[in-house]
Amino acid sequence: xxxxxxxxxxxxxxxxxxxxxxxxxxxxxxxxxxxxxxxxxxxxxxxxxxxxxxxxxxxxxxxxxxxxxxxxxxxxxxxxxxxxxxxxxxxxxxxxxxxxxxxxxxxxxxxxxxxxxxxxxxxxxxxxxxxxxxxxxxxxxxxxxxxxxxxxxxxxxxxxxxxxxxxxxxxxxxxxxxxxxxxxxxxxxxxxxxxxxxxxxxxxxxxxxxxxxxxxxxxxxxxxxxxxxxxxxxxxxxxxxxxxxxxxxxxxxxxxxxxxxxxxxxxxxxxxxxxxxxxxxxxxxxxxxxxxxxxxxxxxxxxxxxxxxxxxxxxxxxxxxxxxxxxxxxxxxxxxxxxxxxxxxxxxxxxxxxxxxxxxxxxxxxx
Length: 367
Fold this sequence. Notes:
This protein is of the alpha/beta class. The chain has helices at residues 9-12, 21-34, 45-50, 53-62, 73-82, 99-104, 114-127, 178-191, 204-207, 337-343, 348-354, and strands at 15-20, 39-40, 42-43, 67-70, 87-90, 107-111, 132-136, 161-166, 199-200, 217-218, 240-252, 257-258, 264-265, 270-275, 292-295, 298-303, 311-314, 327-331, 360-364.
């Protein structure tokens, strides 16, 4: 039961997202323990997977995290304002002409191509300072990174102030895949060209593959936010709950239809509720007829199409005294992020990063 004073922003909100910074920090501790002997960084790209990079990063720094990864330069600049002493890697490196911004904000580019290597070397030579950098290898994913052929000219890398060499696993969420060991061996071979430079291969799911994948630095992302490392493996604390108020309840008759396209037809007299969240908030259109919300342990199916700002819910199994303003659970004890993702035929990553900015947010402190 939720009780709010009228001046509480949650009382005015149609839906609100509760983010447990404590659970995120606890997940960090759990994962860091698995990688004993390796530094545990934290990936806070995409606004900490949609949950608020400033709040999340400060909570993790409070648990001892000193190294962070973002995807883009602007993310790094924003994070630097929050964590002035942190070591911040930018996974996409930089666009041409942005080397100065990278250095000015104390950010470390992850160099993914020979063009980026040459540009960074030239910038450092002109500045008269060897600013730090990292190298990413393509160990088999054919996405970002230098190929093994790119390493054929060792002199090209002379003078780089390398803080890290890294790669990324394509199939880490499939522990039995032979691709994991293939990539690990290829990474070891490529990293050998840079003796003494710390190595990083394992992101979230890779950490759970065991010590052979940990090297000197692990970099959890999704694991911090409670997403299971592989199908059916629930070892991490859920970090978010999403609650929505009933905006309206009505009773429709057999044969009445619901929503855009009139795609759902009532088989009998049915109580339906309208909730004020939709695809603009990250509740996907694909979840129409697939997803549910909950009242306690009672499952309430979503019916009709998902609109931009609303969904309709079949209230047949709900208590008859529920009314406008009462609260239903979208994410919570009965349905975590991975379960909601399955109803859309997608993954928890997409659900988290899509959760809309319109939700009022409540943060549970990490302390």
